[in-house]
Specification:
With about 210 residues, this protein is mainly beta. It is built from 4 helices and 14 strands. It folds into 2 domains: about 120 residues, Nucleic acid-binding proteins (OB fold (Dihydrolipoamide Acetyltransferase, E2P)), CATH 2.40.50; about 80 residues, Beta Barrel (OB fold (Dihydrolipoamide Acetyltransferase, E2P)). Helices cover about 10% and strands about 40% of the residues. The strands form 2 sheets. Strands 1, 2, 3, 4, 5, 6, 7, 8 and 9 form a 9-stranded mixed sheet that branches. Strands 10, 11, 12, 13 and 14 form a 5-stranded antiparallel sheet that branches. A hairpin with a 2-residue loop joins strand 3 and strand 4. The termini are far apart.
């Protein structure tokens, strides 16, 4: 299989008969957007090229179980589409994969895996004010949670949120706000384990 693999940067629109070896670097919760269930992932290859992928509707449950975070897979012959409109670009490519149950997906052997220590580019807290208004700059943070505030309802937006105090290796503190879609999936874990000061990674944050 290795000799058949190309890189994410070489995939073009309407490409056929291709295979890549990638690691699942990012994975969102399953959400309803525009009346459809969907899930987004970011694949990274050994050249550190990144491409976002999306799964829709009836394919979500099966592929969510198959594609585990930080595991390496051979993926082939998914549809390649251009990212249009206001859809954020989470990778280095302006294209995205459309994954389905008919896509070739097979987890690699352990000795074939891509190491995860070369795929992350973390943003120092000190640089956040400089890049806050740069739409093409993705904010990825490595931090510990040191304090949890109670959930609250914001009258202006009619939404619930919860604030957390986080700190990074610069020993700078910051408020991390989780909105409704994350209150069920992420907030309970942070609240339960704050006393251990868990070290966490978050991707594609807004500042």
């Amino acid at each position: 299989m290795e000799e058949k693999c190309t890189t994410l940067g070489k995939l073009e629109l309407e490409a056929q008969n291709w295979f890549v070896k990638v690691i699942v670097a990012e994975k969102t919760p399953i959400r309803f957007l525009r009346w459809r269930r969907q899930q987004r992932l970011v694949f990274v290859d050994k050249e550190n090229e990144r491409m976002q992928s999306i799964i829709y509707e009836q394919d979500v449950d099966q592929l969510d179980k198959l594609l585990e975070l930080y595991k390496t897979y051979h993926v082939g012959n998914a549809k390649i589409r251009e990212i249009t409109g206001n859809t954020p670009i989470l990778g280095t490519s302006k294209h995205q994969m459309i994954l389905s149950r008919s896509t070739y997906i097979k987890r690699t052997e352990e000795h074939e895996r891509i190491p995860i220590d070369h795929i992350y580019q973390f943003t120092p807290f000190s640089e956040l004010p400089e890049i806050a208004d740069v739409p093409t700059k993705q904010i990825n943070l490595l931090f510990s949670v040191i304090h949890v505030f109670p959930p609250r309802f914001v009258e202006r937006t009619k939404r619930n949120l919860q604030d957390f105090v986080i700190i990074n290796e610069e020993r700078r503190a910051l408020i991390l706000t989780l909105w409704e879609e994350f209150l069920q999936s992420e907030a309970p874990y942070l609240t339960k384990n704050v006393h251990t000061m868990p070290i966490l990674i978050s991707f594609a944050l807004k500042f």
